[in-house]
Amino acid sequence: MIRYLIRRLNLFLATSLILFIVMFIAVSKFPVDRIAALTGVQQPTAQQITRITQDYRLNDGQISQFIAYLQQRLDGDLGLSSTSQNLILDELTAVLPASFELGFFAGLIAVLFGIPLGVLASLSTNKITQHSIMAITLTGYSIPVFWLGLTLSLWFGVQLGWLPISGQINLLYEIDSVTGFLLIDTLLSDSKYALSAFLDALQHIILPAVTLAVLPFTVVVRITRSAMMTIMEETYIKAAEARGLHTSTIVMRHALPNAFIPVLKNLGLMLGAFASYAMVVEVIFSWPGVGAWLVSGIYQRDYTVIQGGILSVALLIIFLSILIEIMHTALNPISRKELYAAN
Fold this sequence. Notes:
This is Peptide ABC transporter permease. The chain has 15 helices and no strands. The protein has helices spanning 2-29, 34-39, 46-56, 62-74, 88-123, 127-142, 145-159, 182-188, 194-231, 235-242, 247-269, 271-284, 290-299, 303-331, 333-342. Helix 7 (145-159) crosses helix 9 and helix 13 (290-299) packs antiparallel against helix 14.
């Protein structure tokens, strides 16, 4: 197992190194001064030019420049935003929790509703139920996320007035940031309006989370159904049925835990698509996350924001993909057997 973890760590480092190489090459192609592209400083003084030239070794060769670029980025120096002149690292720290909160909430919705529907589709003998569930998932998979977000906003936000369609919380509430996650911070707040603020924040997250959850929801339903249909034909399931165990007991104790393994694997494979969908959703609902921040930087041609956003999102996808792969290997008996056999 230790060898496997070391290989996964090496994979993370190698993939991250390729990412930094691509970003370093892209920086040289930006249509701005090299110093502005690297640091975000628009009108540097002579002292700043000298310091930046030394820090990034701009008078040396490309390899030396890349090593200096890598050192600066690994030290947390992502430069300044050319628009706000704030540190990119500070802005990232401010917007990342909102994206994590939205992504977690959307993933939770997808799993909590997707797995039961997938199980129902696999066990039901009613053809109408099976076809209806699969038609819903196929429709959800085919709908463009921007159209879905705008439609939900129009229906539930504008016409019915049930849910807010923009922002993270009503501006009337002043909630001190403790964890960065607004739903948690509202509960931790000592304000007498804490519960009202929590309910308001919960209402604000429903529409963007549901919009973002549609894609993983359809994948969870289809993979769960396929896995359950295969598992229910296995010998150990037939043996459990022969012993007189109730169907619900067989499903919950024996079938469902094994069916969750391919679901976990496929969720890891779709992290890239999930992140791109999240950016669109954040723009539609004015959600103050990394996606909206990055798109705003692209519109404003803020090249340090673009670098910081791409690096943070890409590194998170790489890390989470490898982490899910490790979890899949740890939970899957077949993978563990192959792993120990290889060692």
